[in-house]
Amino acid sequence: xxxxxxxxxxxxxxxxxxxxxxxxxxxxxxxxxxxxxxxxxxxxxxxxxxxxxxxxxxxxxxxxxxxxxxxxxxxxxxxxxxxxxxxxxxxxxxxxxxxxxxxxxxxxxxxxxxxxxxxxxxxxxxxxxxxxxxxxxxxxxxxxxxxxxxx
Length: 151
Known about the structure:
five-stranded mixed β-sheet; three-stranded antiparallel β-sheet; 4 helices
């Protein structure tokens, strides 16, 4: 948790926060998407996280990719901006956040994806069909269906 969020939580406890967030979608040559198994809930997500004060969404996306998969990325565009009930996250400690998520497509420019083994336990590429049977965050099917042009 960032120092900014820690200070907010000290003041408001576990109450709901509306937070800007970013997600980075990386695809291989076969258009499979790189997903990360997250340690907090043992579910699959795409790399990403919160935008910090005075940070642009683009800088946050590059930082999150660096922190979570150990790679430098070049952003190739915004795939969408999302929010709503599927983007409400309840953490194990009781914290609640509702994310307004900017989803970027990116390409790896330096490094090989490696989990940090703290926040991210495993990284793997999946086809869209394979993602449909994964234990994943509630928001991921919404984003992937949109990105892959599925109803």
